[in-house]
Write a structure and sequence with these properties.
Shape: elongated
Pfam families: Nucleoporin_C, Nucleoporin_N
Helix content: 40-55%
Keywords: Nucleus, Transport
Number of helices: 42
GO biological process, one term: RNA export from nucleus
Organism: Lactarius akahatsu
Largest sheet: 5 strands, mixed
Radius of gyration: 57 Å
GO molecular function: structural constituent of nuclear pore
């Protein structure tokens, strides 16, 4: 065994690793299951095919293995003897004492046990005394009735009849009456911190005269009282109610044997010779009771209505039935086959259907089951529906080789004796003790004790039996016992597959004659024997290996005429402790070896660990539940520790080969030390591990597991933890097992590694469990029901369904514990109590449930509270600054609801720094790995394709796991915006201080380097109509925000304005162009044209040398201008076609195409092919040709021909002249100068030809004046007309046409001269005009028709010569 470490300091709790804890918890679960299986149900051992009887016993001559031990004798109080004279003599169950207070009157006395209230009742004539045997000499009395008391019993009261304080009733039986007394029994703290019962008696004025003396009283769970009549042997019921009624008296005696009517009349006849009921036994869990007659007939009853019962079954001929089960047994004889007692086998004790045990005078035990199936489960509710017949299923024969008590050896042997000699031995044939006169018996949890008269006066022998776990259990024993238990089975067939029931049996001698026996109730709030639900696997009640670490040994009280003998069940733990004491005293290790061979290596190591580390239940005897840790003497502890190491052996490695391959793998087979640790740990926490934390109550939720049990578990776990911390070498490998010539094999090294890893996980869970229990006890101290009520609904649901295992090992446990701690701290702050104390307690007692970060937050809250209370501004700022510092350190674990509450406090206190910086810190801390930021960057909301360098691509994935981190960041940013709004609202109320706080808040917000926050901030400001102010500021991340997807109309609007203000007109033009051409935004055509117009303007503002991109800027501007021109054509098409939508019938195709004009921009080709040509829009065609500069002389001439034709078609000449002028002048003004859309010469010919055709209606200068109004220069018009004048080409070869042209030229000259006089041009061809006038005058006809023309020419010549 390696040297012992001296380091006992408790390390700082490690980082919480839930997978490690959950893995260790699974190990505990494995041992929960094993504990429910290693010891079979007693019913399974008795109800076996082919084994209807048994007589297998382990008889040992040594004190070590005797199943029971006499603990102490409590003498009868001296105070009772004042009622007797010195010559008192005792006889049987009652005794007569002569002489009382110097008189010769006989004194009649009876005694009995009332273990439910920890009293012995003693009746001396009519006086009743209650002896508190726990205190030794304390007596209480009742003397207010005149009759001799012959029997006293204790029963439950009926609900609602008496005051709540009365929780028991005493039934006093005399030869003439039956009387009820109320008892209030309460637990009080006695000496040595042990609880005792304090009682009060109440005279209920309830008594019933009777002519039969009552014996054997039994009460049901609901308060009904049944009893047997001594003289007639009938079954009676004492019925009582709260008050007298019309149909019933307050107290009635009902005879169920002959009918209730007879009980109202006095008995005048003697009892007939029928079989008499001598015993009544209640079975509260099944709502049944049994009767036993003098002839060993058993009847089963179940109560029906309030005054009636139903006989369910009568079992007769028990002698014959027993013979059938054990044919040939010499023990079953008519002379000795007499049943003396019935004992109920509760449902806690067996799951196989066993229900009743009967004991005969010679020690035969008869077991009855309610079902043929050994695995039938019988519940209390079944009794109200189905009465299953009881059947005798097993006969347990008495031991035939019992050792006389005188032959039991001394507990300690000489050093020369070897423990190996103490295996079951055949007792000396001279004195085998044969049972024949059993008088009293008691049964509890598989343990049976019966009293037998001794072979000397004033002495009784006690037959003690208990299951031999080493014979019936599967404990991993490696060596069989050296000899088989003594006993012979009768009537068995081939034998069962499972081992039969084997019991340890012994006779113990006690002083006095026995008057009563009782099992001490299990301590209150002790470990439950049933799980909370059917899925919880619980060890059977006889598996003391599982229960011995958490409760004291079972004890029995035997009342004799000399006092009370306390008998204790010796557990395996007590046996092992005695073995260790012998090893320490004599150096003989054989006792421990024998113990290991009997109970198995792993179970032995678990018990050695308990002895070495200390336990609350090590003392063999009375002990309060949850008491202090009991440690062995240091020298015994060292023996236990050494034995734990040596018995545990080494871990092994089990190889597993895969067939067909050379690869192999394996698993570790752990040592007994690791298995013992796991077993002991599992047994310590089993009472709470799978239990719910809370259960509902009338005053709200409260702890589901009693606080005493939690304290007991905690103390045992702490003792184990301290022991392991102080002895880490116990699980380390040594070289002692290998020769010096070779090292440990690699496989063994792997086994050691696996074991140390497993032990480390168990130790981590151990430390966490200790803190978990401490944490829950702290919650109880702070009124857990109120704490739960202050948590949110989700947390409350988690707590209601949560088990201790989940609290300690689950993620929900972390969530719940943090929520509850927050409530506790809030309570402290609300009560203006400093949180340092509670924080220190949490850190010390349950550090893993309250991290350093948690403490920081709690102390920060305390600083906030002090700031609220402070009246000094400087001091307040100091507290707030300190709170911010602490909150920033705990930002990673801060819950959002708490953060929101803190920010609300900061807002109220005008602490802008905290309101802005703390949420920013929390946003970074909650997204420390950056996945939320990554989500923001890569998964934007769907938007238009962003050509401006924006971040991100893809679609919005709500199922993306990174979204949660992003939402946490977003929630923090919302708090900052809420703070800014709060400061804005305060500013609206006025005050310079509010302005300073607001300005400081914005300053801190804009100073942040968190780009994501800036985006949220800009978005918030824009939504509040502060876009212009934002543009004026132009903060660092504004451009990136405006460029970021998703692009919106507002963001693009602001972006181009940002570029303008930032001196980047070309980039502004790019944004505007993108807007104009976007198909994602719902823009009108006029808005798109506006954006293009602005784009052109900004592009023209771009400096020539800016960025060295002059050529590309010019190309971009040219493109913009062309798109603007095309968009104008599109707008005109829209205005042209829109009126047509009102035409009937409607044209769906037209409506759709008109709508498309508003959705986006078309190119010039699309406009011509889709709109101008299909709808024959002549003007639009001209506009398209004009904008596109497309040269097609034939097309353009055809268009103009159709324009003129459509204008004058079907119109009188005079009107046609006006309409044609109105049509052509706007077109000419728009298109003249464009060769592609305005063929001037062709139009001039068309106008002259129309004028010649309509010469009578058209004035001489009509054509030239139409052209002049189109904006064509006089010189160009003159050139074209002069060419026609000189051309002699038809129709200008006719004199009339020539004269018309001459008249038109004359008007042209006159208008030209008039225009020159008002606004002279740089060049005016006066000489050329003068020469031409001479020519025109010469060639002009001399006639009246041309007189006006001649005069006009002459006037032109005069003016030319006058002014030029």
């Amino acid at each position: 065994m390696p040297s012992t470490s001296t380091g006992l300091s408790r390390p700082t709790p490690p980082t919480l690793e839930l997978p490690v804890l959950q893995g260790a918890s699974q190990v505990l679960q494995e041992y929960f299951v094993k504990d429910s299986q290693i010891i079979p149900d007693i019913g399974d051992l008795l109800v076996l095919p082919g084994a209807s009887s048994s007589a297998s016993y382990s008889i040992f001559p040594d004190d070590y293995r005797v199943p029971f031990q006499k603990r102490r004798l409590i003498g009868i109080p001296e105070g009772l003897f004042q009622f007797y004279n010195s010559t008192s003599s005792y006889a049987s169950c009652d005794f007569t004492l002569t002489h009382f207070h110097s008189t010769a009157t006989d004194v009649v006395s009876h005694m009995g046990l009332l273990s439910e209230i920890e009293r012995v009742w003693v009746a001396i004539d009519h006086k009743l005394f209650l002896w508190d045997y726990m205190e030794g000499q304390d007596l209480s009395s009742f003397v207010d009735q005149p009759d001799v008391i012959t029997h006293v019993a204790i029963v439950n009261p009926k609900p609602g009849v008496f005051v709540d304080e009365i929780n028991h009733l005493l039934v006093l039986c005399t030869p003439l009456t039956v009387m009820l007394l109320g008892v209030s029994a309460t637990d009080v703290l006695g000496p040595n911190h042990r609880t005792r019962k304090e009682i009060k008696l109440f005279d209920l004025d309830m008594s019933m005269p009777c002519d039969v003396e009552m014996i054997s009283v039994a009460g049901t769970a609901d308060g009904r009282i049944f009893m047997a009549g001594s003289q007639d042997g009938h079954l009676y019921e004492l019925h009582y109610q709260e008050r007298e009624g019309w149909f019933g008296r307050r107290v009635q005696l009902i005879n169920h044997s002959v009918g209730s009517v007879q009980s109202f009349f006095p008995r005048f006849t003697a009892t007939r010779g029928e079989d008499r009921v001598v015993s009544v036994v209640s079975d509260p869990s099944r709502n049944l009771f049994y009767t036993l007659t003098a002839n060993s007939i058993i009847s089963v009853y179940y109560p029906t209505s309030s005054k009636s019962v139903q006989l369910s079954q009568t079992i007769q001929n028990l002698y014959k039935l027993a013979q059938e089960k054990a044919p040939g047994s010499p023990t079953i004889t008519p002379k000795h086959f007499h049943v003396i007692a019935l004992h109920v086998i509760t449902q806690e004790e067996t799951r196989s259907g066993l229900q009743l045990m009967a004991v005969t005078v010679n020690g035969i035990r008869l077991y009855f089951s309610s079902s043929n199936s050994p695995y039938h489960s019988y519940t209390a509710s079944d009794a109200t529906r189905i009465q299953r017949s009881l059947q005798l299923v097993h006969v347990r024969l008495p031991p035939t080789n019992l050792l006389h008590p005188d032959e039991q050896s001394n507990p300690y042997f000489s050093s020369g004796a070897t423990y190996a000699s103490r295996h079951p031995q055949s007792p000396p044939t001279s004195r085998p003790f044969v049972l024949s006169e059993l008088e009293h018996s008691v049964y509890s949890a598989g343990l049976t004790i019966a009293a037998h008269p001794g072979d000397t006066d004033g002495t009784d022998f006690l037959l003690c039996t208990s299951p031999d776990l080493t014979r019936i259990g599967t404990l991993g024993q490696t060596h069989p016992q050296s000899s088989q238990p003594a006993g012979t089975s009768f009537g068995t067939g081939s034998g069962p597959q499972r081992p039969p029931l084997t019991e340890r049996a012994a006779l113990l001698a006690i002083p006095g004659r026995t008057w009563g026996m009782a099992a001490l109730p299990r301590p209150k709030n002790t470990v439950p024997l049933f799980g909370q639900d059917s899925s919880t696997l619980m060890p059977v009640v006889t598996n003391e290996l599982a229960y011995q670490f958490l409760e004291p040994p079972r004890q029995f009280l035997v009342l004799t005429n000399v006092g009370i003998t306390v008998l204790g069940k010796r557990r395996a733990l007590d046996w092992l402790r005695d073995a260790i004491e012998e090893v320490q005293a004599e150096g003989n290790v054989q006792p421990i070896i024998d113990f290991r061979d009997s109970f198995g290596r792993d179970q032995t190591c678990a018990m050695l660990l308990a002895l070495a580390s200390g336990n609350t239940s090590l003392e063999f005897g009375e002990q309060s539940i949850g008491g202090t840790i009991i440690n062995l003497a240091p020298e015994l502890t060292n023996v236990a520790k050494q034995a734990f190491y040596d018995c545990g052996e080494r871990p092994m490695w089990a190889e597993r080969m895969t067939y067909g391959t050379s690869d192999g793998s394996g698993t570790a087979v752990f040592s007994g030390r690791r298995e013992g640790l796991a077993i002991y740990f599992a047994r310590l926490v089993r009472p709470m591990w799978k239990s719910k934390l809370i259960k509902p109550g009338t005053s709200g939720p409260h702890s589901n597991v009693p606080e005493d049990i939690l304290l007991m578990v905690q103390r045992n776990l702490e003792a184990l933890h301290n022991f392991l911390e102080g002895n880490p070498h116990l699980f380390h490998s040594t070289t002692g097992g290998y020769s010096s010539a070779r090292a440990a094999p690699a496989s063994d090294q792997e086994a050691w590694k696996a074991e140390q890893k497993s032990v480390a996980e168990l130790q981590a869970l151990l430390a966490r469990t200790i803190e978990g229990v401490s944490f829950f006890l702290l919650l109880i101290d702070h009124r857990i029901g109120e704490l739960i009520g202050q948590t949110d609904g989700v947390t409350q649901k988690l707590i209601i369904s949560m088990t201790f295992e989940e609290l300690i090992t689950g993620q929900n446990g972390v969530v719940v514990s943090r929520a509850l701690v927050n409530v506790i701290i809030d309570q402290q702050i609300g009560q203006q109590i400093a949180v340092d104390t509670i924080s220190d307690i949490l850190q010390t007692r349950c550090g893993s449930f309250c991290s350093t970060g948690d403490v920081m937050i709690y102390k920060a809250k305390e600083s906030v509270r002090r700031a609220v209370e402070s009246r000094n501004a400087q001091e307040r700022q100091g507290y707030l600054g300190e709170s911010l510092r602490l909150f920033m350190k705990g930002a990673r674990i801060m819950e959002f609801d708490k953060l929101r509450e803190i920010i609300g406090d900061y807002q109220q206190l005008d602490f802008a720094k905290g309101a802005i910086e703390l949420p920013l810190q929390c946003a970074d801390a909650l997204d420390s790995d950056g996945i939320g930021k990554e989500y923001w960057q890569t998964v934007p909301t769907p938007g238009p394709l962003n050509p401006l360098g924006g971040q991100g691509s893809g679609t919005n994935a709500t199922s993306d796991p990174r979204r949660i981190a992003w939402e946490q960041r977003s929630n923090c940013y919302d708090l900052i915006l809420d703070s800014l709004e709060a400061f804005e609202n305060k500013l609206a109320a006025g005050g310079d201080a509010a302005e300073r706080v607001r300005a400081h808040a914005y300053e801190l917000a804009f100073a942040s380097t968190d780009e994501i926050f800036h985006s949220r901030l800009y978005e918030w400001l824009i939504s509040r109509g502060l876009a212009d102010e934002l543009l004026e500021m132009r903060p660092t991340y504004l451009q990136a925000y405006l460029q970021r997807e998703p692009g919106t109309l507002d963001k693009y609007q602001l972006l181009w304005q940002f570029y303008v203000k930032d001196g980047q007109p070309l980039r502004a033009a790019e944004v505007l162009a993108t807007l104009a051409e976007s198909s994602e935004f719902s823009l009108s055509l006029s808005q798109r044209i506006e954006y293009l117009t602005l784009a052109v303007g900004n592009a023209k503002s771009h400096p020539v040398s800016a960025g060295g991109k002059h050529e590309s800027a010019v190309a971009f501007l040219t493109d913009l201008e062309e798109k603007l021109d095309v968009s104008q054509v599109q707008l005109e098409i829209f205005h042209t076609l829109s009126p047509r939508l009102q035409q009937q019938p409607p044209d769906p195709d037209l409506a759709e195409k008109v709508e498309l004009l508003e959705r986006g921009l078309f190119n010039i080709t699309e406009l011509y092919q889709v709109y101008a040509d299909p709808y024959d829009l002549l003007t639009i065609k001209l506009l398209v040709l004009h904008v596109s500069q497309h040269q097609d002389e034939a097309l353009v001439k055809d268009i103009w021909n159709r324009v003129i034709h459509e204008t004058v078609q079907g119109v009188p000449p005079a009107e046609a002249l006006d309409r044609l002028q109105g049509k052509l002048v706007p077109l000419g003004q728009r298109f003249h100068g464009s060769d592609s859309s305005f063929p001037f010469r062709h139009l001039a010919h068309l106008l002259v030809e129309f004028q010649l055709t309509n010469a009578d209606a058209a004035p001489p200068g009509w054509a030239v004046r139409v052209l002049a109004r189109c904006g064509i220069a006089y010189m160009e018009i003159w050139d074209v007309f002069h060419q026609m004048y000189e051309s002699q080409v038809p129709p200008f070869c006719q004199q009339s046409s020539i004269q018309t042209l001459s008249a038109a030229i004359c008007v042209l000259f006159q208008d030209w001269l008039e225009a020159e006089r008002h606004s002279p041009s740089e060049y005016f061809p006066a000489d050329r005009i003068d020469s031409a006038v001479e020519q025109y005058l010469r060639e002009l006809e001399v006639s009246d028709a041309q007189k006006a023309t001649r005069e006009g020419y002459e006037r032109v010549r005069r003016e030319l010569r006058r002014f030029w």
